[in-house]
Structure formats: C-alpha cells, structure tokens
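Subgroup meeting minutes
Present: P.N., E.W., G.H.
Scribe: E.W.

1. P.N. recapped why we're keeping a running log of single-chain structure predictions: easier to compare across weeks, and new members can see raw inputs and outputs side by side.
2. G.H. added today's entry (778 aa).
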Amino acid sequence: MHGKKAAMPIPATAQLSPPQSWEEFESICADLYTRIWNDDGTQKHGRQGQPQGGVDVYGRPDGKHYVGVQCKQKSIWPPTHLTIADIDEEVEKAKTWIPGVTHYIIATTAPNDEKLQAHVRKLTKAHNKKELFSVNVVSWDELTRRLTSYPDLLRKYYPNIATADVVQELTESIPVKTAKLILDQLRDFPSSAQIPRAATDIAKAAGREPAIVQALERDLSGRFVRAIRRSFFRETNKVDEFENLADIASETQYEDVAPDLRRRILLRASRSAAVRGSLDKAEALLGAAQALPGKDSDVVARARITERRGDIDGALALVRDENDADARSTVFNMLFKHRGGETALKWFLDEGLRLGHLTTNGVQTLTTAYLQKKDIDGLRSLLAELTPSQLDEAPYFRLVRAMIALASVLPVPERDLALRGFPLDVTRATHSILDEATTASRLDEALNDFAIFVPIAVELELREAKRLVESYIRWCELLHPYRKDAGLKRLREETNDPKTARGRLALALAFDRCFDPKPLEKYLARREELGGLDDDDLHASLVLKIHGEDPGAVASLIARHRTSFEAGYEDPPIFTIEIQALALAGETSSARILMEKHIGELTNEAVAGLEALIAKAEGSDPVAEDLRVYQSSKTVEALRALVMSLARKKDHRAIAKYSEELYEQTSDPNDIARAAQAYIFLGDGYEFIRIIETYPFLQDREPGLTHRYAWDLFRTGRQTDARKVADRLANFVPSQRDLQLEIAIAIESWEDCMQRAHVAAFTPVLRRPRHAGARRDR
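Output recorded in log:
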C-alpha cells in the first residue's frame, strides 16, 4: 500500500484499558488529581465498606476549599454504564461529607455520555441558587486524555504503553535493522522496569545512534535521581547505590552520554565510597570524574577522601571557604562527626544559616543533631521549613517530619518509640500529653505527610518503609481524639486476619482490650510446623511473648532464632531484650554472662539498669536497687522504675514525691495525677490541694480528682472556691455531679450567711454614732 503511513499509537492516542480493581482506579484518580490540582495533600478517603459521604478522593486545589472525587468503576464486560440515578445518589451522599466540598467530580470508567453531562449541568445550576457545590462527570476517555500529560503516571499504571512510546521514539530515528533489533530485545523483557538493562545491550549493537544515546542519557539520569530519592532509608543503606550507578556510567556503551552527567554521578559515588570507608574505590572514582569535563566541583569529594585519611583539619580547609549548599552541608557534617553536636550547631547558628541553605545531606545532619539533644519540639519547628524541592529530592524527610509530629504528642520518655521504627511494645504510648485540639492538629500533620509518602514508597520500591508508615498511620488514628473510634474499627478489621494481624500486633495489645491473641498464636504454630517462621512471623512471636506472662519463653525464642533476631534487631539490640528476659525468668547467671559478653556495647546507664534488674531477681530490695540506680544516673528510665517499685510497695508518701519529680521530666499528666492520688491515700488534703492548684490542667483531664478537690476545699473552709468547682462539675461533667456536696456547701453557706445577718442586726445599735442634740435617754 502507498500513501500516508499510519501513525503508531502513542499514549495520547492509544486506548488505555480501565483498571480491573476499584482500588487501582481510586489510586489512579488520587495520583492524577494530585498533579492536576498541584496539591500534595490530595488523598484517598476511607476504605470500601465504610461510610464516605460520597467522596473517595479529596484535595484543596486553591489551598483553602475542598474538592471531592467519587470514583465509579463500571465493568467493560458485561458492559455497565453510569446512570442519572447513580449520579443523584452520589450527589446526595456528598451533601453529608464533612467539612463540605465546593466542587464535586464523579470520575468513571464508563464512556462519554451527553445525557449525563446535561444532567450535571442542570444540577450545578440548581446548586448555585442554593449555594451548594458544582457537579461534573469525567469519563474514562477524558481521564486518559489527562493521564497522558503525566508520563510518570503512565509508567506507573501502564508500563506497556510507556514501553511502546520509547520504542516509537527510537525506531523513528535509527535504521530499520537496528529498530528490528530493539524490538527483538524488548520482547525478551516482561516489563518496562527492565528496559534500562535492555537498553545497555541494544546500545552495544546499535553503535552511537543519537536516539540511543538520548535514551541512555535519560536512563542514567533517571537512575541517578532515583538513587538520591532512595537515600537515608534503612533498607537502602545496605548497598551503595551510587557506587553501582557509577559502575554503569563507566561502561563503554555510555561513552557518548553527556560527560557532565557522568562526572556528577562519579563524584557523588566517590563521596559515598569515602564516607563508607572504601578509600581506594573513592580515589579511583574521583580520578575517573576528574578526567571528564563538567561544571560540578570535585572539592567535596576531595574533602571526603581527605577526611577518610584522618586529616580532619585538611578536609575542613578544603571546603570552609566555599559558599554553596553542598560545601556548607559538608562542613556542618564534619564538625558534627568530629567535634560534636554543640560545636556543629553553634557554627550553623553563627553562620546565620537556615534549613533552606542546606542540601538534604545537611538536613540529615541537622536532624541527627537535634535528636541527639532530644529536642523534639525544636526539630518539629525546624522541619516545618523544609522546601518542596527538599521534600521531593529526599522523601525520607517527609517520613521523619511525620514521625516527629507523632512523637511530639507522646510523653517525653516514649518519644524515642516513635523514632526507632515501629516498637515491640507501645503500651506506654497510648495517650497524648497535650490538649485535644493541639493533639488533633499535630496528628493531622503527621497523617497528611504519611498519606503523601505511601505512593512515593511504592514508586521507589521502599517496601519496609511503606509497611512502617501504614502502622504509623494506624497509631496516629488511635491516638487522635476525633479519629480513634474509626482507627480502632480499622485495627480490628486488620487483626481479624492472622496474616495482617502480625503487623498490627503491638497496637492491638496496647489499644484493643477485646483483642484475643489465640488465633494468631495458632496460626504461627501451624506455620512453624510447615516450613518454619519468616521474619514477620518471628516479629509477631516476639511481641506475643513479651506481652505474655512467661519471660523464659522470650529468652527461649531468641535463643532458637538468634541469627535472624541479631540481623533484624539493632535498636535496641536483641541481646538487651534477652538479658531482661533471662533475669525476669530467674536465670540470673545466664543474664550476667550475656551482659558481660556485650558490656562494651552498652552505655553506663544501661549497665546500671540491667545490673539492678538482675539484683532484684536475685532477691535484693527493689526500691533500694532502683533508688541507687536513679541517684547515680538521674535518668528518667531509672526514676520511672523507682516509682513502679514504690507503687508495688504502696509507699504513698514516696510515690507522691517521686511522681511529681517524674512529671517534671516527662510532662506526662498521668505522672502528676499519680502524685495526687497518693496524697488522697495519705489523707493529706493540703498537699492534694497544692498539686491540683499547681497543675490546674488536672481538673480538665481527671474529673474524679476535681470532685475530690471540691470536697477538700469545702473541708478546709474555702466555701466559695468549693462552690465554683462543684458548679463546674455539674455543668461540664454531669456524671461527677455530687448533690451531697452541693447541699453541704449550701447549708454551710446559709449558716454563714445567717451568722453574718445576726451580727449585722446588732451592729447598728452597738456602733450607731451619737448626733449633736440627740436625747441621751432615748
């Protein structure tokens, strides 16, 4: 046939098949409208089966008002269509969505339908008169048209279409035989994720065709950006991705790729190798980079190599006079590593620097410095300054910012639990120390960052980070004053299935009083019989044993799977859990032997705490041991252990004293409430009143204490104050209203009033002044 050649389908003209599942369709809509609205806060709302008010996806395109999207998936075969009844039903639901939308979109996999468009125009006109939201229907044809404007989304959801696009671009500009070779090569690879390696083989055969070189350059640049974005995560730190990328960039088929890009990659890899201790590799990569032209300076790579050689002053001298963000961040990091956090932070402040003056490496150093001095609130304020470019380049800091927001609502000693990866035990982190409004605001901040992070984790294949964030989301919901009921419902749905229960076990044991671990125990026992336990099973088994009543079972589990536990538990190290389990099980000799084996890895405070635990297991007085440790270490952990020992001994005077001292370190209202309760047991009304009046927030958090406070005020003769507190209880906490108290106050007040009236009746006679000329005998 002759004439005009038919165009090869590309993403803008090819028919994209609707997704097979409602979950994927919602995800496509969420990602698409995130970009259309330019709102990173766009997110999916709820789950299937939950009341959603007709809204599956929502965001704020203008930063103020919400727009909602309802995702209506319709089957292709047998064909089903969106109907006017469907629209009317969803619109009515949307009217109930809180906090309300200004525009409502019904996105559907069904094709265009003019009748539906006419109907929503009528609805919008009617809504305008009532000051309600406008309505729009977006068909699958329109959705795919918009989707093609975002190549990253095409690659994510339609890798085959993305592959075709690459093939078309290459084949249009290279010889026919080479194009055939490309197609033959690509057929051997099942997914577009493997195109880069295929492109390497193609390049060898295709020579130096410009289209091939451009494709390789995009490939190399994309890999470099991906490696940067995957930085800092625990699961990516095991392998030096920059070194691997540098090896690829050094292959002969990449010779014609832009030299400045290859130089940039080699310099970054040289720095990374030096920091990791591979000095020879770092020097070789630096030499290769210096042989290439490019504007990227090699000074930071040379400084890192000098640092690795042990010449810290020489390394600092190389970068101290440079003014770019990379050099500043390098100076900051070197000062932190070799001269301490205080020196580094002083330099940072003296230089007048802000977060935006640093690279993401510098932000990581600053974050570590603040965490080292346990300044969670300061770090939270600092991370609010992160720029969009910093968050895009290093999504890790969106995760960190969310974790810090979560930590900031917890009691001070429990804040570390939110920062170490998901803990084995969260029973002491089930309440906020802040008021409801502040707690809700901070947890909303955390949930927003976590929600944005999840699709990024999927894109970057950060499986561990994604699972961690999903657990954090549930933790935030359970702590949230207005979302905790919904969070508990979701938690129970997840723990109904033993497989998913493994990842939510610590939360279930801490937050769900109705949780029954027996089905999970049976599930794990069956798996151990049928091939053994994987890492998730071992984690769940350890959590169950820790929360059980047999510490010997904890030690036994660790001993049977020592290799796996040692590889997976570094913070805290698994041996610290084993030492505690052995001591509590009465195996004190084994506990001491294990502690001596690892004593070089423990801090002095940790050694003192473990020695006290072992001594108590051997019969020493718990109070005496804990008091000794606290007096020597003054740590909050030691003080908390002392208070718990005093509680078991029921020494209320000491409980009151040390609980008040503990509150000063933890800011946990439960600690000062314990001091107040101790004074109640002692019958010490004056001290009890002092506690309540020194810490007035207790009246809002502890109605029972407020009730007692009113009675003690009454008994000490402060009738007016007692009446105010009683009235407050009656008005705001009806369940704590005490009519007997109110009557007693009224009687006392009436008697007092009558006494004053009686005295007043005689006062005019006794004190009436004589007037001039008055008769003396009157």
